Amino acid sequence: MENAWWTFPENFDSPFVFLIDEAQEEQIFGHRDLYLRRIEVHSNTFIELESWFTASGQTRVTVVGPFRAKQWLMHMIWSLGSQEAHHQARGQEMLLRVQNQPLTRADLDDSLRVQANDWGLSPVMRMKGTT
Q1: Most buried by CB count within 10 Å: which residue of 5, 69, 84, 105?
Q2: Quick one: which of 82, 114, 79 has its CA closest to 93?
Q3: Which is it for the CA torsion 87, 89, 93, 98, positive or negative?
Q4: Structure-derived torsion over alpha carbons of residues 130, 21, 27, 84, reported in degrees to the nearest 10
């Protein structure tokens, strides 16, 4: 597999590490992490889940892979955990997408556009590369 994402050392720099609760883990990765491998393959990432012994039953999530794929997954998880119904709906749409088919460049581009709009960045700021 020439040019596979894991052959580029920079894809292992700066992993994204965050905590999610048990319910969100099951929502995203399925019961007993049924969808974990499929999400990894479809997003070109490696995802490690570690259960933490906390009162709230949190799971530490570590994601390595191409930056834009990691960013896409973070946007999906942030959206799913949002209190805003339209963000939750967007997150659910993204989750179904990554569970069912590989992400495309268009998916990654669309996520950046939506993030910029959600976070109130003007087109000029997006062009300067601040997203």
Answers
A1: 69
A2: 79
A3: positive
A4: -50
